[in-house]
Amino acid sequence: MTLYNFLLHETYMQELCVICENGYVAATCWIDHEDRFQIPQRLKDKEVVSDKWGELPVANEYNETIRMPCHYIEIGD
Hints:
Helix content: under 10%
Strand content: over 45%
Structural class: mainly beta
Distance between the termini: 11 Å
Order of helices and strands: HEEEE
Radius of gyration: 13 Å
Strand order of the largest sheet: 2-1-4-3
Largest sheet: 4 strands, mixed
Number of strands: 4
């Protein structure tokens, strides 16, 4: 399944998605309540290899690291 179709059909409203390519974060996107999201054009037709839920470390306004729940999606060629 392509990344675009995966994001459209296999994610939930208000979900934070972290898109990884070769083990590195390539992009992030947030699914809004109308299933609208943007990803780089070069990633749209990449195949989803695997996915899992985890946490993304993010800095807050005090430069403290907090961990946000997210959906990690690994893509390949």
